[in-house]
Amino acid sequence: MRAGISELAKKLRNREVSAVELTKAYIDAIEKLNPTLNAYVHLTFDTAMKAAQEADQMLKEGDAPLLCGIPMALKDNICTDGLTTTCCSKILKDFKPYYDATVWEKLKAQGAVLLGKTNMDEFAMGSTSETSCYGAPLNPRNTNYVTGGSSGGSAAVVCANLAAYSLGSDTGGSIRQPASFCGVVGLKPTYGAVSRYGLIAYGSSLDQIGPLTNSVKDAAIVFEAIKGGDKRDQTSADYEYDSSLAECLDRDIKGMRIGVAQEFFDGINPEIKSKIEEAIKLFERNGAVIENISLPALKLALPVYYIIACAEASSNLGRYDGIRYGYRTSSYTSIEDMIVKTRSEGFGDEVKRRIMLGTYVLSSGYYDAYYKKACLIREEINREFATVFEKCDVLIAPTAPNTAFPLNYKGASPVEMYLSDICTVPVNIAGVPAISVPCGEDAKGLPVGMQLIGRRFGEATVLQAAHFYEQSAGQVIGVYEGGVGI
Amino acid sequence: MNYEIVCGIETHIELATKTKIFCGCTTEFGGEPNTHCCPVCTGQPGALPILNQKVVQYAIKAGLALNCKINTKSHMDRKNYVYPDLPKAYQISQYDEPLCENGYIELDSGKRIGITRIHIEEDAGKLVHEDGYTYIDYNRGGVPLIEIVSEPDISSAEEAKEYAEKLQLIMRYIGISDCKMQEGSMRCDVNLSLRKPGDPNFGVRTEIKNINSLSFIQKAVMAEAERQADILDAGGTIVQQTMRYDEATNSVTPMRDKENSDDYRYFPDPDILRFSIDEEKVEEIQRSLPELPFDKLKRYMNVLGLPEATAKQIFRYRKVAEFFEGALAEGASVKNTANLIVGTIFSNMDTEEEKELFAIKISASQFAALVKLADEKKINIGVAQSTLQKMLETGKSVEEFIKPEDLVGISDDVLESLCKEAIDANPKAVADVRSGKDKAINTMFGYIMKKTGGKADIRKAEALLRKLIGE
Hints:
The structure holds 2 protein chains of 2 kinds. Helix content of chain A is 40%, strand content 13%. Chain A has 16 helices and 11 strands. Chain A has an 11-stranded mixed beta sheet with strand order 1-3-2-4-6-5-10-11-9-7-8, sandwiched between helices. Chain B has helices at residues 53-65, 157-173, 214-233, 279-288, 293-302, 308-315, 318-329, 334-345, 352-357, 364-375, 381-394, 412-425, 427-434, 441-452, 458-470; strands at 4-14, 69-70, 73-74, 77-80, 90-93, 100-106, 112-122, 126-130, 133-137, 144-150, 186-195, 206-211, 242-246, 251-254, 267-268, 275-276. The longest helix of chain B has 20 residues, at 214-233. Chain A: The active site is at 75 (charge relay system), 150 (charge relay system), 174 (acyl-ester intermediate).
């Protein structure tokens, strides 16, 4: 197994390696692999080296935080003061925010070393990261396949060991699905557990920032560092977790009630289904109680998700008009002409599709039939989850109905592509936490992801269950050879 | 043909909170362009709004002062439209759950103009056209507003003006806005249609946007009513559209660019949680409200007995009313206090604004000390006025200008009884006066002056003596 965050932190403290040396090692690996993988879209090596020097100073002074000096990456939709942040959209070409997202502010204060911003679907809209204006990142495990999306770059850099960890964002599965495709761990926290301030919005009531890591323990460490209420985000909350989430990991799972809902397994690739069933048996053998439960409203989750996310997106993306920042068309006859041309040229097809869909469902005459109805069903889904969590501690489900698609896969229409989010979107609708952990490989050698879903602010239980599985199941996927050799 | 005017007014009022509605930037008017701004109020990608609780409190204040019901549950909506002064391409406002509903303003006639709703929202930035370019100043973006929507209960130009005037006065009184129409901190949109008297149905209405003075409201209503009447009389139909009032030509014309079937695609803002307002808070705000201006006016007339004209001059400026009541609390008389304010203090103030600000150098108790001298007839009104003027100029107290020896000190009653005493004490002199020896009256003067230490008003005394002797 490759070194986790705790091991790296130990090496830094034992002076086995300095933050500067560690950062250089990652930079070398990125220079070697990134031209192929296209996982990073903006590299921040100069600031990384400076941060590493400062980290070494902090380490020398003692009492440095755990993440001090550890090189990492941020998805390109998380604002970084003075550093290019584009959401991988032409419309935000060369955009440099003048403030830091709260998550980055927190990590920076801990001495984190930012290597760069990672590739993603344009404005986080997509399931393959292929809608990026920089072209798709490649799956390090097999470069003929996609990384998944939208946090594809964040999954790829962790998989290829081009960062010790990364942050992504998850609106309908955008952390968990690429984690599953690339064979890494991805945690989508409870809605409100992590501040969204500085996360460029897609679907504001669904978006949540979370970590992508090599292990469940690392996910717990990074989540611990970024969580917490923020006075700049009214939808965030201060929740009192057990003092240290990393310490909860080793608790016994005996008696843990694990729910299995048939609705999560309908239409799932049989190879994936059997991997999840094996995992369920492993839990059962170790004393967990398996509960068969039902979530009938789940079949409505997908349309509800696409209505609500697109409605919010259509409003959130209205501000990209070429007036204040980002791309502006080169020739125009009036302000209206400028706005229309800027948006026509600046947005890609998938973003335009979702803006149009969202505009439509909010239009007078259609609002009640679509948006309002979707909100009512959302409440019903929430109620069903709440009822289920009276009987269960976690739910087990596949992360995606399939493993990674081949690049440029033309077999799927946009709607078929949307269907691949079927297992992840209900979690965002209900605002509950979920983690994806690798649970095997398919016949092609592509990783399969298992999803563990918890109750609101039930991250400790989710992490505990995931950690148990990771430790007990052993090496379920192949080790990626490459990246940093530390 | 005769038509009935059906008119409702939407009023935007900028709230006088120190900071903006969703961020900590100052709301101060003016300033270098784009200096009162931050990521939130310029709609930077990723920035999020935080609702300023003061704004909610101010809006509740307005609602209570306008007799509204306060909704205990409320939320913010997004109103989506594209315009360069709106940096997020949506305005955060309230659509179907306004903070306040169902209030009214009572006109002098006793007629009540219903208030449909009051909601809170953010102001937009400002476009500045200069040297052939258009610049945007976002200093005003995010300044808190309330929108007060009236029922279509207004049926004349005079009522329209009176409604707006009363609204302005009440809002200023409760201290939530300066309501300066010229500076745009109060802006009125007038909706107007005509119908035949007795017709239960409304006609097609037009909306006259952004009227910026009270008298223009009256004129605009008249002009638009005439315009619509001419069209209807000629057999035409009214087109529902947005209009502009041009004060130079006193005419109402359609605005060029606005189409009228805007679909704002309102939906609840996911960045701001639904909020509830506890009833205790509402009660607390209710208790903190000052006596409202028209209640005050009634009290000044009916309880204090002030003549209507005087009462109306004092009540409309909250600071003046406070000064007036402060002097009364120190024991000054209603009549002299009111007359000295209106006659002397106001003669130093040329504009409404000065009266509104009421920046004077003396306190209510300094003022009361002077008024009481006049009340007790220790100085006469002429002396009181000239002394007050000196006090206003210097800020000094009455003792600086009126020494004990200057005081008349003798009331009319006292003087009359002294005169009677003088007559009784000098029967010979009285007889002499009666027989034509006029100088004999000096004997009585001497008596009175001796008794009063020379402070009696000698002319008054003479008149009294002659009257008494003559009887």
